[in-house]
Structure formats: structure tokens, C-alpha cells
Design brief:
The complex is a heterodimer. By secondary structure, chain A is an alpha/beta fold. Chain A has one domain: TIM Barrel (Alpha-Beta Barrel). Chain A is 36% helix and 22% strand. Chain A has an eight-stranded parallel barrel with strand order 1-3-4-5-6-9-10-11, surrounded by seven helices. In chain A, helix 8 packs across helix 10. The longest helix of chain A has 15 residues. Chain A is globular. About 3% of the residues of chain A have low confidence. In chain B, strand 1, helix 1 and strand 2 form a beta-alpha-beta unit. Chain B is built from six helices and 14 strands. The model of chain B has no long low-confidence stretch (mean pLDDT 94). Chain B starts with a strand and ends with a helix. In chain B, the strands form three sheets. In chain B, strands 2-1-3-4-14-13-12-9 form an eight-stranded mixed sheet. Chain B has one domain: Class I glutamine amidotransferase (GATase) domain (Rossmann fold, 3-Layer(aba) Sandwich), CATH 3.40.50. Chain B is α/β, with parallel strands linked by helices. Classes of the chains: A alpha/beta, B alpha/beta. Chains A and B meet through loops of A and helix 1, strand 8, strand 10 and helix 6 of B.
Chain lengths: 259, 213
């Protein structure tokens, strides 16, 4: 029986973690490789890296980080942020990532999904979606709109339509981030998660709003998510991944408990 | 030394990194001489079965691989490498290597999971393996160990070649072969400590087999 996945997400700028990560022991604070190693050892099922670097130089440093991560952890990890072409995808996959996540790059140029799937296989291509609740309208009948640039730019694109389009173009997975829930720690947007996960046949990763393990259990059971993305709940040492998995497992959700 | 069979359709570098981590010497190669010198062969594969077979046959590497198996060189097939050891794959309607009988089939989306919902395809994530017979590759693994899978097609060899099964909607064969010739549908190089243990068990077997000769 397939386990539900717990996926910590690390934001990287110029090769360093952007958020101060507080850990006990001698982990180098801010080092993405050491942090990835720690989460790997704590039982993370996968890891996501978002590169928020703007410069070409920072990009090079980031690819070095990806290579080091690939030699350090032996679970799948994906890389997103600034992926705008098949060549960008190739660079991170060659550096050792399993999957590459396209977000605003795919909104601007949907063909990147099909080109990536054709070149590397659907299993490599994750469609990242940032979604905001809006008034239902003709353009956005579901009341959930795709946004880019951290939610600043509305695209007039319905989230459900976009998810189905992404699946049809060959995305292997959807990472569904609620801009409204992000940072609240009040739980995932279950309505959004359920809406999308029921209508596509590819796995959906719930993202945004995790404040405790119960929220993740809800995303799996009520939201129909296959995986849950987490960030601050583990970065600030509130919970270890092992404890999160233990608590979710006690609620009857299948977790990978041996690693 | 283990050879990682190079035919431009694999996750050779991920396998290589895992072996490096274990301190196992390896070469990514399609050179028949190096392959012959290796204690064992890892036959990886990602992507589609059709393309993998095309890469193999276009440069005659299918015959190289078959010759190695004839010589009883230990071999471990991974993912698409596991699938194309069979006769046939439904993926791209592909005639495969016929090293082990059977075919590879698409997951039936009408199968349902434990919540009675249709299974999602691909089967992506961590799942366990129930062993149907003893296998040295799984020696020393903790009960409840899980492995990372990502695939839409699954191998279906005859019963006598089924070593382990995994349940996704229904049980399917996730490990097949015979002693010295194994194929796993999951990715041991991406399955954390249990996966690394499988690779080191394979290496230990190859060592012994090579010393015995």
C-alpha cells in the first residue's frame, strides 16, 4: 500500500537557505546540503528546493548545491524556481535532481510541460501552481485563480482548468500551493486540495498552511492529497519529521515509518 | 568493480552516486571488455520501454547484455531495466529482451485503492515489498522497509519468477528473476537506507560469485 509523503521545502538564494533555520547540534545553519541530510535522516520522503536566485552567478552556485545534495541524500528531490526552458530543466536533472518543478514559466509558456515530459518523462515534471481565492467569474468559474510572482500577478486563469491542462500536457504531479493559507499555520486549503485532487489522476501535493501534523492528516484524508509540503513547522524546530510522521500514522494514515 | 550498463536511457549517475557513497567501485560503461571484467552489472533505466529498447538494439548492446547473462554474470535490473528483461511491454508495443518470460502491463485505472478511489497512475512514492521466496538482496532489511517507485507499467512474469510483490490497487510483481539475475521495479538508489542495503547485498553476492570462479 502506497504511503502518503511528507516533503520539506527549502528556499535557497545564492546557495544558502533563505530562512534562518534553528537546529540543535552542529548543523551549519543555512547550509542547504546539511539541512537536506538532516531531513533525510529524520525520514523525509522527498525534498523540494526552490531557487529564488536572480543572478546567473547565483544560479551556478545553486547547481553546485544540487550536485552535492545528490551525493548526500538517497531519496528523490525536486528543484523549482526560475525554470523557463527545457535547457533549464536539463541542467537541474543532470545535476542530480529527480524532478523539476515549473510554475510561472509554464503559465507563460505551457509547451514547456509537454516538451519536458517528452524529453525526460512525465515523472520528472511537476506543475507548481500558486492559487488564490477570488470571486467566481466567467474566467474563473471555480473561484480559485492561478497567480504568479508570489501572488502579486493574477493571470485570469482558473486553477481547475489549469490543473487539467497541465495533466493533459504531461505533468506527472501537481504541487498545489494556496497563497491564502501560506504562512497562516491554520491548515491547508482543503476545499482547493479536494477540488483539484478529485479532478486529476496524477498525484497532488498539498502546500501552504501546515501548522501541525493534524493539518497534514486532513490534507490526505479530506483533501485527497498524495503528499504534504511543509516548511516553517520543521525549519524552526517545532517538530521533527519523525514526530510528524508518528503522529499522522497514529491517526490511521499510512506513512513510511522505517528508514 | 560493478559496471553500470550505459545505454543512454538510464539513471546511471544516481546509481553511481549511491555506489560511491557505499564505497563500491563502479564504472558507467558499454565497453564489452570492461563489462566482462566487472564482478556484476547494474542495468538501470528510466523513461519509456520503447526508447530504451531502441537505444539498446541500435548499437547491438542487447546482444552484449544477453552474452553477459549467458556467462552467468550477476545482473540487477532497475525500473525500465527490470521491465525490458521480459518478452514484451505494452508501453509503445515493445518487443523486449526475452531474458525472463512474461510481459509488462499498464496499471488498470479501474483498480481502486484502500479508500475505494481509482488508483492514480503513475504509481509514485514509497511502498513495501512482500517476499514470495528468499532473496539475498533483501537480507538484513528491517521489516516494514519501503522503497521508492515511479512507474505506470508493471512486470508480470510467470509465478516461478516472482520474488516479491507490492500492492497498488492489487498486488503486482515488483521483484523478479532467479539467483544471480534479479530485477526490481523500484529505485534502490533512491530508497534511502533499505535501497542502499539492496545495492550492497548485490555487490556482496557479485564478490562471492567472482571469488568462487
Amino acid at each position: 500500500m502506497l504511503s502518503k509523503r511528507i516533503i520539506p521545502c527549502l528556499d535557497v538564494r545564492d546557495g544558502k537557505l533563505t530562512k534562518g533555520v534553528r537546529f540543535k547540534g552542529n548543523v551549519d545553519i543555512g547550509d542547504p546540503v546539511e539541512t537536506a541530510r538532516m531531513y533525510y535522516e529524520q525520514g523525509a520522503d522527498e525534498i523540494v528546493f526552490y531557487d529564488i536566485t536572480a543572478s546567473a552567478e547565483g544560479r551556478g552556485i545553486f547547481l553546485d548545491v544540487v550536485e552535492k545534495v545528490a551525493s548526500t541524500i538517497f531519496i528523490p528531490f525536486s528543484v523549482g524556481g526560475g525554470i523557463g526552458s527545457v535547457e533549464d530543466m536539463r541542467a537541474v536533472l543532470l545535476a542530480g535532481a529527480e524532478k523539476v518543478s515549473v510554475n510561472s514559466g509554464a503559465v507563460k509558456n505551457p509547451d514547456i510541460i509537454s516538451q519536458g515530459a517528452a524529453a525526460f518523462g512525465s515523472q520528472c515534471v511537476v506543475l507548481g501552481m500558486d492559487v488564490k481565492r477570488v470571486e467566481k467569474s466567467e474566467a474563473v468559474p471555480s473561484g480559485f485563480e492561478v497567480v504568479i510572482h508570489g501572488g502579486r500577478k493574477h493571470m485570469g486563469l482558473d486553477a481547475l482548468d489549469w490543473a487539467k491542462t497541465g495533466e493533459a500536457l504531461g505533468a506527472g504531479e501537481i504541487c498545489l500551493n494556496s497563497i491564502d493559507a501560506d504562512g497562516t499555520k491554520d491548515g491547508y486549503d482543503l476545499e482547493l486540495t479536494r477540488l483539484i485532487s478529485r479532478k486529476v489522476r496524477i498525484p497532488v501535493i498539498a502546500s501552504g498552511g501546515a501548522g501541525n501534523p493534524g493539518h497534514m492528516a486532513e490534507a490526505f484524508v479530506k483533501g485527497g492529497a498524495s503528499a504534504a509540503l511543509i516548511a516553517s513547522i520543521v525549519h524552526y524546530g517545532e517538530y521533527s519529521i519523525a514526530r510528524i510522521k508518528q503522529e499522522i500514522s497514529e491517526q490511521g494514515v499510512k506513512m513510511r515509518m522505517v528508514w | 568493480m560493478l559496471a553500470i550498463f550505459d545505454y543512454h536511457a538510464g539513471n546511471q549517475t544516481s546509481v553511481r552516486r549511491a555506489l560511491d557513497h557505499l564505497g563500491i567501485e563502479s564504472r558507467i560503461t558499454s565497453d564489452p571488455e570492461l563489462l566482462d571484467r566487472a564482478e556484476g552489472i547494474i542495468f538501470p533505466g528510466v523513461g519509456a520501454a520503447g526508447q530504451a529498447m531502441e537505444e539498446l538494439t541500435s548499437c547491438g548492446l542487447d546482444e552484449v547484455l544477453k552474452a553477459l547473462i549467458w556467462q552467468e554474470k550477476p545482473l540487477l535490473g532497475i525500473c525500465v531495466g527490470c521491465q525490458i528483461l521480459l518478452d514484451y511491454s505494452q508501453e509503445n508495443n515493445t518487443k523486449a529482451l526475452s531474458i525472463i518470460p512474461g510481459e509488462c502491463r499498464l496499471f488498470n485505472p479501474s483498480w481502486t485503492d484502500e479508500d475505494n478511489r481509482p488508483i492514480r497512475v503513475p504509481h509514485m512514492g514509497w511502498n513495501s515489498v512482500q517476499l514470495k521466496r528468499d532473496c539475498v538482496l533483501f537480507q538484513g532489511l528491517e521489516p516494514g522497509s519501503e522503497f521508492y517507485f515511479v512507474h505506470s507499467y508493471y512486470p508480470a512474469p510467470p509465478e516461478e519468477f516472482v520474488i516479491g510483490t507490492t500492492t497498488y490497487g492489487r498486488p503486482f510483481c515488483s521483484v523478479h528473476g532467479r539467483p544471480g539475475l534479479w530485477a526490481v521495479q523500484f529505485h534502490p538508489e533512491k530508497s534511502g537506507a533499505p535501497g542502499l542495503r539492496i545495492l550492497s547485498n548485490f555487490h556482496a553476492y557479485c564478490r562471492e560469485a567472482s571469488d568462487a570462479q
